[in-house]
Amino acid sequence: MPARILIVEDEALVAMELRFVLEDLGHEVVGTAADSAAALALARETDIDLALVDIHLSDGPTGVTIGRELAVDHKVAVLFMTANPGMVRNGVAGAIGVLSKPTDERIVQDAVSYALDIRSGEARNMAPPQLQLFAQEPRA
Amino acid sequence: MPDHPNHRPSWTEAERLAALRDYDILDTEPERAFDDIVDLVAALFDAPIAVVNLIDEGRQWFKAETGLGVRETPLETSFCAHAILEADRMVVADATQDPRFACNPLVTDEPRLRFYAGQLLKSAEGLPLGTLCVLDTEARPEGPTDIQMRALEVLADQVMTQLNLRRSLKHQQRSQAEFRAIADSMPQMVWSTLPDGFHDYYNARWYEFTGVSPGSTDGEGWNDMFHPDDRERARTRWQHSLETGEPYEIEYRLKRHDGVYCWTLGRAMPVRDDSGRIVRWFGTCTDIDDLKRLDQAKELLSQELSHRIKNIFAVVSALVALSARQFPEAKPFAQALRTRINALARAHEFVRPHSDVSQPLMGDTTLHNFLAALFMPYTDDEGRPRIRISGDDAAFDDQAATSVALLFHELATNASKYGALSVPEGRVEVTTERTGRGDFHLAWREKGGPAIRGTPAKAGFGSSLATLSVEGQLAGKLSRNWNPEGLEVLITLPGTALSRRKAARDLTTA
After folding, report:
1. Which one, of B270, B266, B291, lies nearest residue B279 by Cα?
2. Which residue has the higher pLDDT, B36 or A124?
3. DSSP labels for B355-392?
4. d(CA B281, CA B199)
5. Mean pLDDT throughout B448-474?
6. Which of B95, B114, B222, B448 suits a disulfide with B101, CB 3.0-4.6 Å?
7. Which of B176, B260, B245 is nearest to B210 (CA)?
C-alpha cells in the first residue's frame, strides 16, 4: 500500500535520489526537510506514515530530537539514516531503527517495507540485515 | 712594586688587585674581630706594632693596626710590599743588615724599625692580598720563636677566614639578586617552594598574571588560583612529586587577573644537597592557552572536514544513481560503481578523525571491525554472517583504507555474482596472520560455491582493481588459486602496509 513519507536530509542530491527510490516503490513523498523547523512544520501540516531521518542536518545533529518528536507526537514510523549509527546505539523512543549510510536502493526499499508492515501491525520475523532495530517500548 | 729579580710570581698585579677588590674590605671601618687579632699578635711577639695590612694600588691600607696610629701609608717604604713576593712569609731579623731595607726611611729615620715578621694573607685562589705582620724597633738577631711564627700563621689564617666568609656572603647575595633579576625578566611565571611544598617565592610574572597581592598565595594559597575542576588533580600530582622527588608536570587552568581561566603548563624540578636530600623546588608556569585553543580549533576543523568528505561521498553516490536514471541501460554500471563508492565511504567513515562523541562508538579502527561492517550485507536467513573473519587483527589508517575497501569489496562482489556467495550454502573464510618476520598475510577462501573449471581466460576489471590495490597501493603480493572447491586468494603485505603513517611517525621519533 502506498505510504506518505517524509525525507529529513540536508544534502539535496541525496534527498532527491531517495525520493526517486521511494516513488519507484509506489510511495508518495510528502516533502523534504533539511532542518528541524521545516521537518516539524511539515509534520504538523500533513499526515505522515513514515519518515527517513538523517541525524546530521543543516542545523546540527538535531535528527535524533526530530525523530523522537515525529514518532511520539505524530505517530510516524521513524527510520534513522546515518553514517554513524553508533550515535543512536541506545535507541530512540518510538523510532524503529537505524540504517547505515551509505545505503542502496534495495536496502532502503526493504527497510521501508519492513517499517510500514510493523506500523500496520503485520508480523515480520526478520528485519533486513542492514537495519539495526531499536528495542521497542510498549506504546502508550 | 719593587723589583724582585729572583722571584717570578705566578700572578699579575692586575689579577692581585682584582682579587683584593673582590673582598670589599678596603676603606671599611675598623672591626673588633681584626683589632683583637693585631692586639694578640703584638702581645705574643712582645712588639709595639702589629698590622693587618692590605697592599692596594700605590698604598698599603690597614684593616687593623696597633702602634702606628695611621690607617694607610705609601708603598715605597713598605716592608710588606716585599713580603708578598715571598711564598708564605718574610722575617727580617735586623733591617739595618738587610740590603732591601737598610736605606728605607722607616729604618734610617723614625720610627727606626729593625725587626719584621709577616705572614701572607692569601685569597682562596692563592693571590697575596697583604700580610698579618709585626714590627719592632729593636733587632732580634735570634729571630722569632717557633711558637710565635706558628701563632702568626694561625692568626693570619683567622683573618682570611673572616674575609672569605664575608666575600661568600656577598657572592650569595649577588647570586640571589641575579636570580631574581632573571626570574623577573622571564616571560614565564616562576615559583619556588620549601622541601615540604610551602610556596615562598613567586616572580613578577606570577603577580602580573594573577593580579594577586604579593605574599597572598604563599604557602598553599596557589591551589585557589586553579580552576575548581583542576584543583584536586593538581594537588594530588604535586603531593606525589613532593613524596617521590619526581619532576612535576601538569596542565591546568589558572585564573587570570580578569577572571578568565587560561590553560597553563606547570613544571617543577627539585634541587638537592650533597647528600641527595631535596632542599628546594623550583617551578614554572607557562601560558599554553593559545596553543591549546589552537589545538582544539584544529581538531574541530579536522572533524568538520572529515564530515564534509563523508557528505561528499553520499552526494557522489546519489549523483551516480540519479544520472543512471536517465540511462536505463547504464543501470548495471551505475550499480557496480555505486557499490564501490559506498565501500570507499564506509572505509573513510572508519578511518576519519572522530570527535569525542563519535569516536568511542566507532570501536577501534581495526581491520576485523572494518571488514565486519563491510560484509554486513552478506548474511544468511538467520542473520549469521556468510563471510567469517578470524586470525590476527591489525590497525589500519586512512592511507590504506581505500585499498582495503576496494580489495574486499571486489572479492565479496565477485563471490556473490559468480562464487560461493552466489548460492545460499556457500561460505567464505577470511583469515589474517601477522608472521614472525612482521609481514601480514590475508587469505580469502570460498567454499560451497559452484564448481570451478580452471582459471578464467581474462581477468575482469574487478580482479584488476583488487590486484592494483594490493600490489600498487599496499606494495604487497596477490595470488589467485582457482581450486576446484572454491577460489582462494592469498595476499602478503609488508608489516607496515596497513599503518604507513604510524610507521613513518615511529621512525622519526625513534
Report:
1. B270
2. B36
3. -TTTHHHH---BHHHHHHHHTTT-B-TTS-BSEEEEE-
4. 9
5. 79
6. B95
7. B260
Q: Which of A98, A96, A91, A37 is nearest to A62 (CA)?
A: A37
The Cα–Cα gap between B299 and B23 comes to 61
- For B61-116, write each residue's pLDDT tens digit: 999 999 999 999 998 888 888 888 888 999 999 999 999 998 888 899 888 999 99
Say whether residue B335 is in contact with chain A using an 8 A CB cutoff: yes
**pTM of structure:** 0.56
What is the model's pLDDT at position B360? 46
**DSSP state for residue B351 in the 8-state scheme:** H
What's the gap in Å between the CA of B408 and the closest CA on chain A?
17
For an interface test with A, which of B317, B319, B320, B362 has the most A Cβ atoms less than 10 Å from its Cβ?
B317
Report the C-alpha gap between B437 and B41 in whole angstroms: 87
CB contact, 8 Å: B315 with chain A? yes
Distance from CA of A46 to the nearest CA of B (A): 27
Select the residue of A17, A87, A100 nearest B358 (Cβ to Cβ).
Answer: A87
CA distance A84 to chain B (A): 7
Report how far residue B246's alpha carbon sits from residue B256's, in angstroms, rounded to the nearest whole number.
28
- State yes or no: pLDDT of B496 exceeds 60: yes
On whether ipTM exceeds 0.90, the answer is no
Q: Where are the beta strands (DSSP E) in A35-85?
A: 50-54, 77-82
B81 forms beta bridges with: none
Structural domains of chain B in order of their starting residue, each with its CATH number = 13-171 (3.30.450.40), 186-287 (3.30.450.20), 364-509 (3.30.565.10)
**Angle of the B289-325 helix axis to the B331-351 helix axis, nearest 10:** 170
Give the one of B322, B338, B342 whose C-beta lies nearest to A16's C-beta: B322
Please check the confidence at residue A43 and state whether its pLDDT lies above 80.
yes
**Nearest chain A alpha carbon to B340:** A102
Residue given cell 536502493 in the structure block: A105
**pLDDT at residue B1 greater than cutoff 60:** no
The predicted-structure confidence for B292-312, as pLDDT tens digits, reads as follows 888 888 888 887 787 778 788
Q: Which residues in A have their CB inside 8 Å of a CB on B?
A: 11, 13-14, 16-18, 20, 56, 83-84, 86-87, 89, 100-105, 107, 126, 129-130
CB contact under 8 A, A104 and B346: no
CB within 8 Å: B319 and A104: no
List all residues 6 or more positions away from A28 whose beta carbon is below 8 Å from its beta carbon. Answer: A2, A3, A4, A5
